[in-house]
Design brief:
19 strands; globular; seven-stranded mixed β-sheet
Length: 530
């Protein structure tokens, strides 16, 4: 019954949110809308105040000339149809975030930006912790809390996979539970789960499922200290308990990849990558049903908080609460617990991945040099120090579908990456390349140390299923020499490359804008999906 109620409430929020998206402003033509949008550089665009009602700061987004058509066509279609029957275009969502209480600097869209729930996916926004009106919004984090990517290196070369690739792919698929409803094989009970929510990767290290040095190469060292398991509902815990150590479905995957290009030899060497052809493994997953339930629970609680505190937003999907309120603090504590769960989830799959490689090569993970290069988060809100108008500020930075990308010498990145900047892992769409970037000082100034997280969807999952044939997608992967194991073959159409933007264009835009630097290009040779 509770599940039905949550679903109904979320649906109501969607309907109300779409209806209120442009409240307070008359309907304008596309040409009139474009008067509020200006190009600043070859890659940066600005959304001026007035584009939507109540903007407190400007919006900005990053696109090169090959990506911009998709975003502007989305806005034009929205204005020409009167906004009926579709989601808000991402440009409107970026601007609506710029109207939220306590926001500073700008509402920022990265090159992979696309329409999401409340915030656009690929949207970064920071809120001043010293401003009593500043808010936290679950829509600025997303339903898959701490969805993220980790990258493992090996001392293997592509030649080593020649006669074993299919067996290794099957071994990975056999070891890692995948798909909707999949259940973890690492034994855990409710008492273990409580500790997972509080301790994050410290639990994994203690239980022997993670190497001690893995923590040094994980964002936040794999644990948010403000986590409070008591703020996570019993329903969320029940959903999360059987799913710990599972890949899930959607755009989550485990991939065996080959280093295809090295752009920055010094940074690559620091990461333990010394030659083209080296084998690495990328794992992309999050907090599964537990994180989704934490977000759903918070959205319901924040509706009443908004009425009580007279918080006004342009879109009901931007439901929020004052950071200092009980609802705001409860959400941040529950979100941190879900983030800890996600780190343990990826750590557990790393353990299983190491076991699969060791079995296939009749070796040990240590002898195969299967060390963690880095683990980054995509959907999270964190308290950070940044410069705003030349002054240091303590901010709550929301990154939804964007990646933290701290520059060189930042105290929160590992010692060995101090000179090159934080590694940034950018996953491609299924069957296309992925990238490793590094953070920059310019990114610290311009985007609160944030950059892209992936390719970014170019069309909805429903549209992908209607337009694409799963047999054609699988055949295309086979022609490229990519082994695939998937729990539900028909769902691969949702994740086909045609459903996404070109990840190379996305990464090149970030590089050209100077908000992150290209380091490695990775080519997939085997894909595990739910």
């Amino acid at each position: 019954t509770l599940c039905v109620c949550v679903c109904v409430c979320v649906c109501v929020l969607v309907a109300l949110g779409r209806g209120m998206a442009n409240s307070g402003s008359a309907r304008r033509s596309f040409q009139e809308e474009m008067k509020y949008v200006e190009q600043v550089t070859d890659t940066e665009w600005r959304i001026k105040k007035g584009f939507v009602a109540n903007m407190k700061v400007p919006g900005k987004f990053y696109l090169n000339h090959r990506l911009k058509d998709l975003m502007f066509e989305e806005l034009e279609q929205y204005t020409n149809t009167g906004g009926v029957g579709g989601f808000l275009p991402s440009m409107k969502q970026i601007a609506n975030v710029a109207a939220m209480p306590g926001i500073v600097g700008a509402s920022i869209g990265l090159p992979d930006v696309h329409s999401g729930y409340g915030f656009a996916i690929g949207n970064t926004a920071a809120f001043d912790m010293s401003d009593p009106t500043a808010v936290v919004s679950p829509g600025g984090v997303g339903f898959d809390i701490n969805c993220g990517v980790r990258l493992l290196r090996t001392n293997l070369s592509e030649e080593d996979l020649k006669d074993i690739k299919e067996d290794l792919t099957q071994s990975l698929f056999d070891h890692i539970p995948v798909g909707v409803g999949s259940k973890g094989i690492i034994p855990t009970n409710m008492s273990d789960l409580e500790e997972v929510l509080e301790l994050g990767m410290d639990w994994s290290v203690r239980e022997g499922y993670s190497w001690a040095e893995d923590k040094e190469h994980a964002e936040e060292f794999g644990r948010m200290l403000n986590a409070d398991p008591s703020k996570v509902s019993s329903r969320a815990k029940k959903r999360g308990l059987p799913q710990l150590g599972t890949l899930g479905a959607g755009n989550h995957y485990a991939e065996i990849q080959i280093v295809d290009e090295i752009f920055d030899k010094c940074a690559a060497s620091t990461m333990g990558v010394d030659h083209v052809g080296q084998v690495v493994v990328m794992i992309h997953s999050g907090s599964r049903g537990l994180g989704h339930q934490v977000a759903s629970d918070a959205l319901l609680q924040m509706e009443s908080a908004m009425d009580r505190d007279r918080i006004h937003v342009n879109d009901k999907q931007l439901a929020c609460a004052r950071i200092t309120s009980q609802e705001g603090q409860d959400y941040l504590a529950a979100m941190a617990a879900a983030a800890n769960y996600a780190w343990v989830n990826r750590s557990s799959m790393t353990f299983l991945c190491r076991q699969a490689f060791a079995k296939a090569f009749q070796s040990t993970p240590d002898d195969l040099d299967m060390h963690l290069i880095y683990d980054v988060s995509h959907n999270i809100a964190k308290v950070e120090e940044h410069m705003v108008d030349g002054k240091p500020k303590t901010l709550l930075v929301h990154r939804k579908g964007s990646t933290r990308a701290f520059g060189p010498h930042h105290p929160l990145i590992p010692v060995d990456y101090q000179f090159c900047g934080q590694p940034v892992l950018v996953g491609g769409s299924m069957g296309t390349c992925s990238y490793v970037l590094t953070g920059t000082d310019k990114g610290m100034r311009d985007t609160f140390g944030s950059t892209c997280h992936g390719a970014g969807r170019a069309q909805s999952r429903n549209k992908s299923r209607r337009k694409l044939n799963y047999e054609d997608v699988l055949e295309s992967l086979q022609r490229k020499g990519i082994s695939i194991r998937v729990a539900s073959p028909k769902l691969v159409t949702e994740e086909a490359p045609d459903s996404y933007k070109d990840v190379t264009e996305v990464v090149d835009t970030c590089h050209e804008a100077g908000i992150s630097n290209k380091c490695l290009k990775l080519r997939p040779v085997a894909v595990i999906k739910g």
